[in-house]
Inverse folding.
């Protein structure tokens, strides 16, 4: 792999760092098989207040992302097991986190493929660390959700993403971590169909993408806890053989 210029930044972004210290650290997933670069990025980003996860191949990266969803992904295209574009496509199946590609591939075709697959930015190696840090800050600014998206309300229940809890007219609903994760994935993309494979990848990981029985069991539990009539769900809708969606303003005739 082509090595990057990884010397320390000449500029200390003190205001950004102080602001991040007061909030939950931004989680960054760095995926690259260049161990030296991986270590340098981990040290550099951690020093600036980011919470950093690393992976040296695509399969490990997808497992890490499913267990601890990142706020931003830095991805090399030349991975030993999966092409980086395939990793972008897999992440885009369920995640809206910004993806910054780092690659020694300079061709326009490589850039177009990565961006079309869902990457947000493309940085060619070798690169300057200051430039990468600036691109990270810009990507996170563009991705920051408005406060109106922190809470999702239906006629039957309310989802508070920040507090990671759900309430109904009778009070707080106790969800298992898996139930919450499943509901969160559907709620973040409410109104849209999320395929069975996308849900399994996000909630359980790449090794479970054929275990559709997991979805049936946990969706049944969610309906029992959230639907006014679990036998006739109006919010958590099944598209047979394809996937599921969360309707926040459902057609009451829907079954």
């Amino acid at each position: 792999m082509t090595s990057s210029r990884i010397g320390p930044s000449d500029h200390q972004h003190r205001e950004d760092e102080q602001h991040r210290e007061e909030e939950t650290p931004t989680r960054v997933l760095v995926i690259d098989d260049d161990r030296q670069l991986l270590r340098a990025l981990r040290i550099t980003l951690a020093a600036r207040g980011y919470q950093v996860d690393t992976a040296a191949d695509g399969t490990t990266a997808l497992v890490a992302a499913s267990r601890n969803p990142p706020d931003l992904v830095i991805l090399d295209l030349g991975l030993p097991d999966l092409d980086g574009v395939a990793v972008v496509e897999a992440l885009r199946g369920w995640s809206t986190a910004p993806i910054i590609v780092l690659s020694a591939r300079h061709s326009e075709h490589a850039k177009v493929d990565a961006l079309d697959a869902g990457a947000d930015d493309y940085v060619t190696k070798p690169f300057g660390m200051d430039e990468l840090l600036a691109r990270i800050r810009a990507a996170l600014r563009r991705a920051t959700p408005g406060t109106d998206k922190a809470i999702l309300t239906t006629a039957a229940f309310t989802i508070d993403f920040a507090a990671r809890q759900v309430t109904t007219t009778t009070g707080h609903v106790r969800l298992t971590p898996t139930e919450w994760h499943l509901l969160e994935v559907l709620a973040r993309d409410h109104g849209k169909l999320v395929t069975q494979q996308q849900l399994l990848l996000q909630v359980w990981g790449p090794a479970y993408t054929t275990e559709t029985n997991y979805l049936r069991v946990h969706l049944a539990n969610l309906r029992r806890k959230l639907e006014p009539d679990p036998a006739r769900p109006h919010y958590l809708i099944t598209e047979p053989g394809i996937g599921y969606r969360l309707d926040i303003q459902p057609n009451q005739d829907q079954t």
Notes: The longest strand covers residues 27-31. The longest helix spans residues 129-143.
